[in-house]
């Protein structure tokens, strides 16, 4: 009869394939959450940028800066693809802002150890500053969009 020698270790041994696979998926999930966190934080500023870009494009095509209650944003330039793209990109970003009001604090709590504290504060300030910029409506761009 042969003797089998059993070696006992204090650390349980897991297969190498399972541990790298699960950690890779975890890293991919964290990267996706971080990209979503940044998109939600910058979405108010992206709305303002898209709105001013659409106004700038309309100015180039109609010859003057679009005026609220005079130049209808939906019918002033019917056939320009870039202008339509800029206008239509505003509404998904508005939905991002509405969703970010609830989900941005939750994502910040989940990811607060992944960023330095200063970067977390910067993202919060960018989001609140963008909301204040939308609320103040400089040059009445949102009034022009919604008329």
Describe the structure.
- The protein has one domain.
- It is built from five helices and no strands.
- It has helices spanning 16-62, 81-88, 90-110, 117-136, 141-146.
- Helix 1 (16-62) crosses helix 2, helix 1 runs antiparallel to helix 3 and helix 1 (16-62) runs parallel beside helix 4.
- The longest helix is centred in the N-terminal third of the chain and has 47 residues, at 16-62.
- It is elongated, with a radius of gyration of 25 Å.
- It starts with 15 loop residues before the first helix and ends with a helix.
- The mean pLDDT is 86.
What would you say about this model in short?
With 147 residues, the chain is an all-alpha fold. The protein has helices at 16-62, 81-88, 90-110, 117-136, 141-146. The model has no long low-confidence stretch (mean pLDDT 86).
Into which percentage range does the β-strand content fall? under 5%
Total beta strands: 0
| Outline | elongated
- Low-confidence runs of at least 5 consecutive residues: none
Query: H/E series, N to C?
Result: HHHHH
> How big is the Rg?
25 Å
Through-space gap between termini = 93 Å
Please, how many domains?
Answer: 1
Overall structural class, as computed from helix and strand content, comes to mainly alpha
Estimate the helix proportion, in percent. 55-70%
Count of separate DSSP helical elements:
5
Largest sheet: none
Mean pLDDT equals: 86
